[in-house]
């Protein structure tokens, strides 16, 4: 019985440790700067890699927003076409 509990705790500990290790980037301080006229100097103070990463993240979020909007439009169109 004790061996089973030890194995269970070991598996749970390793699972939690691996999850934390995998998502440790989520705990890092996020520099969320959007590029616009008012914060141009803040944007230019970032390194080239940081600017690239931020622009890539913004483009991905914009793409996700467009996809969800397109899905909503398709759902509404299906509902409207079924009613007619």
What does this structure look like?
It comes from Prochlorococcus marinus subsp. pastoris (strain CCMP1986 / NIES-2087 / MED4). The chain is mostly helical. The chain has one domain. Helix content is 75%, strand content 0%. The protein is flat and about 65 Å long. The mean pLDDT is 82.
In short:
The chain is mostly helical and 84 residues long. The chain has three helices and no strands. Keywords: Membrane, Transmembrane, Transmembrane helix.
**Percent in helix:** over 70%
Uncertain runs are none
Number of domains: 1
Count of extended strands: 0
Strand fraction band? under 5%
Q: Which series of helices and strands comes N to C?
A: HHH
Helix segment tally: 3
Radius of gyration: 23 Å
Most strands sheet: none
Overall geometric form:
flat
Structural class category: mainly alpha
What's the mean pLDDT score?
A: 82
Keywords: Membrane, Transmembrane, Transmembrane helix
Protein name: Possible Hantavirus glycoprotein G2
Transmembrane segments: 6-23
Summary tags:
84 residues, 75% helix, transmembrane helix, membrane
Topology summary:
Layout: H1 2-22, H2 40-45, H3 48-83
């Amino acid at each position: 019985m004790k061996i089973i509990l030890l194995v269970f705790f070991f598996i749970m500990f390793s699972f939690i440790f691996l999850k934390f290790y995998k998502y440790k980037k989520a705990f890092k301080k996020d520099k969320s700067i959007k590029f616009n006229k008012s914060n141009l100097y803040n944007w230019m103070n970032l390194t080239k890699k940081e600017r690239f990463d931020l622009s890539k993240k913004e483009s991905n979020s914009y793409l996700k927003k467009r996809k969800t909007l397109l899905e909503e439009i398709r759902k509404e169109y299906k509902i409207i076409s079924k009613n007619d």
